[in-house]
Amino acid sequence: MSTSRADLEREIALEQAHVDKVYANLNTATANAKSMARQGREIFLSDRTNFLREEDSTALFERDAFAYQAARRLAVLDSEHEGLVFGRIDLSPDETRYIGRIGVRDKEYEPLVIDWRAPAAEPFYRATQAEPMGVVRRRVLRCRDDRVVGIEDDLLDGSAETSLPIFGEGALMAALTRARGRTMRDIVATIQAEQDEAIRAPYQGVTIISGGPGTGKTVVALHRAAYLLYTNRARLEKGGVLVVGPSNVFMNYIERVLPSLGEDSVTLKAIGSAANDVLGFASERVDDAASATVKGSLSMLDVLRRLVRLPLIDHPEALRVRVTVKGEVLGLGEAELNRIRDHVLASTKLNRGRAMAFDAVVQALLRKFPDDVSIEPAELEERVREHPSLLMFMNAWWPTLSATRVLARLADPAVVAKVGDRLTADERTALARSYAWVAGSDEGAEIVRGWSVADIALLDELVDILGQAPDEAEEIDLFLEGGDVAEVLTTADLLRQERAREPDEDPVTTYAHILVDEGQDVTPMQWRMLRRRGPQSSWTIVGDPAQSSYPRQDETAAAMADLVGRGQSRTFTLSTNYRSPSEVFELAAKVITQVFPDADLPRAVRSTGVEPHLDATSSADLHGALREHLIDLAGQVNGTIGVVCPPSMLKDVQLFVMEDDRLRAFEDRLIVVTPLQAKGLEYDGVLVLAPDRIVEEVPGRERVLYVALTRATQRMTILDVDTSTWRAPLD
Ligand SMILES: Nc1ncnc2c1ncn2[C@@H]1O[C@H](COP(=O)(O)OP(=O)(O)OP(=O)(O)O)[C@@H](O)[C@H]1O
Q: How many domains does the chain divide into?
């Protein structure tokens, strides 16, 4: 390893010269491309998979197209201040390739920088010392905007005769020990070989990325989205790519990764926003454990189907129809009406079937009219059709139903008893109680209002059963036009919305590829909601069953198996933990293997030599102990500090840290969350508060405590309050 400062500066200057050349070429090429575009020349997408192809007769034209695309993506990168060039490989003999966030060619169409997703860039990620793939030296350039500020080298082929200088301690460790900010960063310069395989897996079918905490599942999945856009741009920009994650906090955390890779055409949605397209609203509210469990279960399907059929007016008069024409009483009873209903619903959805049902009822009534009473058939039909009692009956028997109106009926325990007789008594109680807010009759200190995240999937199911009510569709269109949408609408979304819609079609927005993060938490009812957004799509599903917060794991596994079972699929298991030091992860591993012996336990890549700090306090002394430990943590780490506490303590702790004079000094890097909110996130210092209460309060119990215990990148403190039962596996 060469260590001289002067050598390093000389080497950086050489790299700077290349980077300058790249920017100069890019500026000229994009200026040309823009002016050609202005002249109205049509621009095609270039064939990026054949990157190093010899120049051919179409190359001049393609170069303009290429530059045009590069200019578009560069505009995104500029706003993110990301260095365009970040890597270099020296291959034997004497071949050098530069790797960057986008590809750039010179006037002769020779590559100056290769897009990291091109096949020619693969050795940058895949080469190892055991299998160097012809790479002698891999170099990571650290850039700030267009300035090279550092280099980190790996010598891969020690056997090759080389005079190449080697600098730095390796880029991965440098990246991992850097203090974390509030948002996730891309890892494009340090993707590891096993991660690269998952990123570049084929587009078709279902790709599953599993692995324990901190193995890079989320960040790999996001790079995969960028890779798929690169290799299938025409199809995916038109068809759309959707990334679904557990919460808005999580979506905010990951939102910068794709723009920093030059991609801005991916839609990000929290699972509670996934049915925005048909409902026009989203939710972030989480139900208590018991109601969340029953609402996520497939047993709700039967409940909802029966709920739709349950007459709104529970009176025998609503179940039969009678009209009198010329003194003759024509009537239909419950059995005949049910037959008509079944017949209509076999061919259309409830909200679209009213006219058909009305016709069928009229025809059935006409057939009841005695043959021996004389009346013109047309007159008879008109008198039946316009009979006031028939119209009143139709309003009661076949009203236009909105999903929210139907679901709200579950606030009535008597209704739950009727449609939920296959649920247990506890499930029925939990279900009815969770809708008490509808009737304004919620009891207890905590008043909950509004639809929950779990309700969103139920409402979406109801829209699917009912068809959209006509006035609802109008409201949603207005809502979308008004721009007051919770998610970011991308250009691709807008283009798709312009597609002419069949008048009868539900406005479900569909995607060509759907990427689901924290897939272990997606309930069977939520899988149904997601699958409606991707009837033809390919999927990437990311998850770790050991971190699941949905208790009915057999049901979620069956729902996933059903999705996977339909076509080709492949699974990648990531095995290295890049987040937590080994000392932190070993403690977490002891806790999870007690309850989940099959947990995927990754190998931690770093060690700090500092064991987690375990302490205990009483409820009475909580604030003092919390203050002391947080000040301690703030002194030990430079970056973020997360307090992960049981939901019941959230408000108290948030208030305390906001108002405490001594904690205010570092409030900009201190955050208080529940373990469910902490899913997928990480902090440099973590304080896990009252683990026993976390286990008691949160669905998923020890599995969610495991989530809390695996968030730290540097230091972890665990503060018990009153009890320490969770510590049993540590002895
Ligand atoms: N190749 C890499 N180079 C640099 N950093 C990496 C690499 N792989 C992962 N990381 C970092 O490791 C951390 C964990 O990554 P990520 O959040 O994607 O893991 P995860 O498997 O989704 O974790 P969890 O299951 O706990 O949500 C992040 O800070 C990420 O940037």
A: 4
Pocket test for ligand 1, best of 185, 196, 210, 218 (most atoms within 8 A of CB): 218
Cis peptide before 93 (omega within 30 of 0): yes
Structure confidence at residue 44 (pLDDT): 41
Residue 417 lies in a domain: no
Res. 203 pLDDT band, cuts 50 70 90: very high
Percent of residues, the chain, with pLDDT higher than 70: 84
Residue 289 lies inside a defined structural domain of this protein: no
> Helix (H, G, I), strand (E, B), or coil: what is residue 592?
helix
Query: Of 346, 369, 397, at which residue does a domain stop?
Result: 397
Residue 183 corresponds to which tokens in the numbers above?
Answer: 């948002």
Q: How many CB atoms lie within 10 A of CB 34?
A: 14
Q: Do residues 554 and 587 share a domain?
A: no
Tens-place pLDDT, residues 478-524: 444 333 333 444 444 444 444 444 555 668 999 999 999 999 999 99
**How much is the pLDDT for 81?**
60
Residue 312 C-alpha to ligand 1 middle, in angstroms?
51
CA distance 514 to 534: 7
Does residue 532 sit in the same domain as residue 643?
Answer: no
CB atoms inside a 10 Å sphere around CB 457: 26
Q: How far from chain centre, in Å, is Cα 235?
A: 21
pLDDT digits (tens, 9 = 90+) for 571-593: 999 999 999 999 999 999 999 99
Residues 6+ apart with CB under 8 A from 152: 139, 140, 142, 167, 168, 169, 170, 171, 174
d(C-alpha 405, C-alpha 414), whole Å: 16
Does residue 657 fall inside a structural domain?
Answer: yes
Say if residue 513 is in the same domain as residue 628.
no
Mutate to test the pocket of ligand 1, among 116, 142, 187, 520 (most ligand atoms within 8 A of CB): 187
What is the 712 CA–ligand 1 centroid distance (Å)? 12
152 and 197 in one domain?
Answer: no
Higher pLDDT, 209 or 93: 209
Question: Has residue 16 been placed in a domain?
Answer: yes
Domain at 530, CATH number: 3.40.50.300
Percentage of residues of the chain with pLDDT beyond 90: 59
Same domain, 101 and 240: no
Q: What is the pLDDT of residue 320?
A: 86
Nearest CA to ligand 1 atom 26: 213
Return the beta strands (E) in 316-463 as ranges.
Answer: 321-325, 328-332
ipTM greater than cut 0.95: yes
List, for residues 32-87, the tens digit of each pLDDT value.
666 665 554 444 444 444 443 433 434 445 556 666 666 666 666 665 566 789 99
Name the residue among 85, 90, 111 with its Cα closest to residue 100: 85
Query: Tokens 């969103």 identify what position?
Result: 456
Which amino acids bring their CB within 6 angstroms of ligand 1?
172, 175-176, 187, 190-192, 195, 211, 213-219, 544, 547, 578-579, 680, 682, 710
**Residues annotated in the binding site, as ranges?**
211-218
Judgement on whether residues 594 and 636 belong to the same structural domain of the protein = yes
Same domain, 685 and 630: yes
Q: Which residues constitute the domain of residue 114? A: 5-177
Which residues are known binding-site members for ATP?
A: 211-218
- Residue 199 CA, ligand 1 centroid: distance in Å: 14
Q: Of the residues 518, 547, 574, which one is the last residue of a structural domain? A: 574
Per the model's pLDDT, the better-predicted residue between 166 and 161 turns out to be 166
* Domain shared by 10 and 159, yes or no: yes
User: What is the residue-averaged pLDDT of the chain?
Assistant: 86
